[in-house]
Amino acid sequence: MPSLIHIRADDREQRSALVAELRGRLEFELTVERLRLGDYCVDGRFLVERKTLTDLAASIKSGRLFTQALRLAEVDDLRSALLLEGQSRDLRHCGMRWEAFQGALVTVSVFIGLPILRARSAQESANTLLSIARQGRSVAAGAMPRRGRRPKNKRALQLHLLQGLPGVGPKRAADLLQYFTNVANVFDADPCELAKVAGIGHQTARRINWAVEESPSRYGLD
User: Fold this and answer.
1) By the 8 A CB rule, do 127 and 202 touch?
2) Reduced to 3 DSSP states, what percent helix, strand and coil does the chain have, rounded to the nearest 5?
3) Model confidence pLDDT, tens digit, residues 159-211
């Protein structure tokens, strides 16, 4: 039987319909506390900022949306997303044109690089968090391929493998390969040695070490 999905909710969300929905679902183990960023930390892997559509309108007017999106997109050790909850009728009296919403969402998704998810209700939002966690566990266990074409030369293949590690993008993969000279040395390195690489902090080093030390059958499933 799959283990419970742990969700940490920001305490400023504790009166929301989504927190009430999560409390009533058997799939989740919910903790309410103050989060530094985002509203929901899902399964220790994902960070979700939830906004109702009226919240979205207010944050666009104040400019807060872009500041929040930039901070979320810069988080290294968690994958972040913006979850918009509500229906179009919620925007009837917000005093903003659709073009303003569209322009803001283009900025957030295309130029800042923060994925945007949609849900019509608290129940759909809970289902979305469940889907994120389940698919995340499948990816961690190797059940789903990473996107992109299969690399053809050895260096490209090495970089591709390293980008599968937690918190490692193209630049960090290149820095790791330059420092350790091959993938096997990266996998054998301890967190202190990993943290010597430019751009790899102690937290990311520990997550890399955890990923390569655990047996594949236990990735995210214990």
Assistant:
1) no
2) 50, 15, 35
3) 877 887 888 888 888 889 889 988 888 888 889 999 999 888 888 888 888 87
Per-residue tokens: 5: 């999905």
Which CATH superfamily is 154-218 part of? 5' to 3' exonuclease, C-terminal subdomain (1.10.150.20)
Residue 208 contacts residue 194 (beta carbons within 8 Å): yes
pTM over 0.85: no
Q: Report residue 46: phi and psi, to 5°.
A: -130, 145
Alpha helix stretches (DSSP H) within 141-188: 154-162, 170-180, 183-188
State which CATH number among 3.40.50.10130, 3.40.50.150, 3.40.50.2300, 3.40.50.720 fits the domain covering 5-140. 3.40.50.10130
In terms of Cα–Cα distance, which of 160, 161, 182, 172 is closest to 204?
A: 172
Phi-psi region of 37 (alpha: psi -120 to 50; beta: other; left: phi over 0): beta
The pLDDT assigned to 222 comes to: 37
Strands 79-85, 46-52: pairing kind: parallel
